[in-house]
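Lecture 7 notes: from sequence to structure.
We start with the chain below.
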Amino acid sequence: NVLWHGDSVAHDAAPAIVAAFAAMGIEVTDQSFPGSRLTELPNGDDPLERIITAAENTRPQIVFHQLTTWDTLAEPIAQRRATERLAELAASIGATLVVVTAPVEAAAVVDDIDIQRHLAIVTNTADTNGGDIQIWDQSGVFGTTFTIDIDGDGIPERKRDGVHLCPSGAARFAVWLTDTTAEMAGLPTANHTTWLGLDWANDDRYDIPPGACEPVPSN
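Predicted structure tokens for the same chain:
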């Protein structure tokens, strides 16, 4: 059992992640949600309370958190404390905490300086907090420059908004995430042919906004 958390980017990845882990016999507790983060929401709601409740109920062996630009809106001290709370949660249930970097976004959408500052806070927390904490860099999946159609086959990996994922991108990410997990845990990798063609790719989230994942001219 693993727990997956993040914002709308992680939410787009979730259907593929659930399917890929299922091919390994691993259940996913999906706590991803558009706008979710570790720091408090503007209305005072605390997403960590929801994550803590889910983790205490399901007792995952791995807690995955994909970094989100929403946390960069909070003050550094709040970012640090929220990361510490997540680390404390994982330690309390004997889970490995895996913090995953987010896919690169279009330069016009996000300030990379803020993202790097937040990543530095998370990295420092992992280095000083103790416990089983890992940071996985997924830049090898989507590259370091935003590209809609990474392999030039006309099937987009990323949505046209410069941020989110299409089914092809979600699948690409889920293959990497499950293979990396299998290597870390000493488990057999998933047979990806068993889940890549399943109905998860028809989820309505991949057509938000309408036409976001329509084919593009191939190179």
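Points to note: The helical segments are 8-22, 47-58, 76-92, 112-129, 139-142, 167-185. Residues 167-185 form the longest helix (19 residues).
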